[in-house]
Amino acid sequence: MTNYIAANLPAIDFPQTIAFYQKLSFVVHFQSEQWLILQNDQSVDGTLEIEFFPYPNLDPKQSYFSASVWVQNFNTLKALYTSWTRLNWLNYAEPTRMTKIDQMGQLHIFNVIDINGSLLRCMSLS
Fold first, then answer.
1. What pairs with residue 62 in β-bridges?
2. Nearest 10 degrees: Cα torsion 45, 73, 76, 95
3. Cis peptide before 15 (omega within 30 of 0)
4. Model confidence pLDDT, tens digit, residues 27-76
């Protein structure tokens, strides 16, 4: 195992969080009553992993939680974006949404707000 730091995000409901992220190609890697780890190994450049803790009383419209999702290059970011745009984002209540890819100098970024109101900043440097 490689040393790393992982962001821990709140989940109002583990089964609903799992169902949402499964549509983004994540699978359950670990689950207990107090912890949930999801993984997406669709990328040729490595595995994306996201961790959750229970927060049943969270108001998703008031959430300030976020995580950075870094990928190795723009092609990987574009592939991730293309895959995630297949989800019908209109089926989800606000604040859940996904932005278009934006470029700021060498940084390419798109954002996702999940069903728990957490912001995922998906980025690559090129």
1. none
2. 120
3. no
4. 999 999 999 999 988 765 678 999 999 999 999 999 999 999 999 899 99
